[in-house]
Amino acid sequence: MECLTDQGVNYRLESRKDSTDIAESYRINNQIRVKEVRLITADNQNIGVVSIEEARRLAQESELDLVEVAPNANPPVCRILDFGKFLYERTKKEREARKAQTKIEIKEIRLRPKTTGHHRSFKVRDARKWLEEGKKVKVRIRFRGREIHYPEIALEDLKEIAEELSDVSMIEHAPSIEGRTMLMVLAPDKGKKK
């Protein structure tokens, strides 16, 4: 079955790959190589410790699979269930968990110690907008030539920027010098949002 968009094809391939990775992490039916297992039936009833042959027989009678769900337990825990359905539910849960994760984007404004107040105000306005959208902002001041000998000018600029944005942000990473740049990271402050 083909999709019209490349994204759909990539998505399908990715989801198949995820399910095969999950499938390989579980041992089923004849792949289980222990003598005794703790058995849980399809209706979540704990039968207790039984031999592997007995567990396989019960799984075949109910026309389901015997799946080792906790291999590190002593004895390993196995469940009687439909393995295809189990994989589908597992990948669905993982997909939902990935969607729920928040991805924080980091934006950057670059300045120089000689940047005028007027130009800096444009950059600060952009930074304010990004912080209100929930993005982090990295403020970088780049030194050229002899400017590196006067880091206090850049430090003062960074303090002023932090003060201007203090109503929507908090300092996540204090100003520090890395090579020929001084940088500071501002994170959106959830408590101060309007």
What's the gist of this structure?
By secondary structure, the chain is an alpha+beta fold. The chain is 40% helix and 28% strand.
Give a verbal description of the structure.
The protein is α+β, with helices and mostly antiparallel strands. It has two domains: 6-100, Ubiquitin-like (UB roll) (Roll); 106-192, Translation initiation factor 3 (IF-3), C-terminal domain (Translation Initiation Factor IF3). The protein is built from five helices and nine strands. It has helices at residues 6-24, 52-61, 83-100, 117-132, 151-164, and strands at residues 27-28, 36-40, 46-51, 65-70, 77-81, 106-111, 136-142, 169-178, 181-188. The strands form two sheets. It has a five-stranded mixed sheet with strand order 1-4-5-2-3. A four-stranded mixed sheet has the order 6-7-9-8, with helices on one face. Helix 4 links the parallel strand 6 and strand 7 (136-142). Helix 1 packs across helix 3. The longest helix has 19 residues, at 6-24. The two termini are 49 Å apart. Residues 1-16 have low confidence and may be disordered.
Task: Furnish the topology, listing elements before pairings.
Blueprint: H1 6-24, E1 27-28, E2 36-40, E3 46-51, H2 52-61, E4 65-70, E5 77-81, H3 83-100, E6 106-111, H4 117-132, E7 136-142, H5 151-164, E8 169-178, E9 181-188
Parallel strand pairs: 2-5, 6-7
Antiparallel strand pairs: 1-4, 2-3, 4-5, 7-9, 8-9
